[in-house]
Amino acid sequence: QVQLVESGGGWVQAGGSLRLSCARSGGTFRGFTVGWFRQAPGKEREFVAAIRWNSRATYYTDSVKGRFTISRDNTENMVYLQMNSLKPDDTAVYYCAGDTGVILSSLRYHGNYDHWGQGTQVTVSS
Questions:
Q1: What pLDDT, in 10s, does the model give residues 7-65?
Q2: What pLDDT is stored for residue 74 in this prediction?
Q3: b or e along 50-80 (b: 16 or more beta carbons within 10 Å of the residue's beta carbon)?
Q4: Residue among 99, 91, 79, 107 nearest 9 (CA)
Q5: Cα 2 to Cα 24: distance, rounded to the nearest angstrom
Q6: pLDDT at 75
Q7: CA dihedral defined by 13, 109, 59, 83, rounded to 10 degrees?
Q8: Nearest to 33 by CA among 85, 121, 88, 107
């Protein structure tokens, strides 16, 4: 069973930083694509970043390029999202998602991930 748990959200002033963590309990991320998505009130869930576990290839939405970094560690069950230069528009609930068999052309679509964490709130004040 795949269980994902996010942590690290909170409140920060614009320009500040936060690091989100996504842990898989009971297994590893080997062979997975792990993505971060976010959803602000009244908006659709949107892609933020993803990492291919085996190749370490990373992908970002344009609005976070140069500010956010997705990474993995060597324990095989942790993925991080380092968020710098945060803006009020980054305020949202952030979700970690993972699955195997996610093809490159569809990794930005939330419907292609079967496993989700509970979400963690990120609030950026101006």
A1: 999 999 999 999 999 999 888 999 999 999 999 999 999 999 999 999 999 999 999 99
A2: 80
A3: bbbbeeeeebbbeebeeebbbebeeeebbbb
A4: 91
A5: 7
A6: 82
A7: 10
A8: 107
Contact 115, 2 (CB under 8 A): yes
Which pairing describes strands 32-39 and 58-60: parallel, antiparallel, or unpaired? unpaired
Length of the chain: 126
From CA 24, how far away is CA 8, in angstroms rounded? 15
**Contact (CB, 8 A) for 64 and 49:** yes
Q: How many CA atoms lie within 13 A of 67 on its CB side?
A: 16
Burial (0-12, 13-18, 19+ Cβ within 10 Å), 92: buried
Biggest CA–CA distance in the chain, Å, is 40
Helix (H, G, I), strand (E, B) or coil at 123: strand
Give the residue from 18, 20, 25 showing the smallest Cα distance to 7: 20
Distance CA 106, CA 43 (A): 20
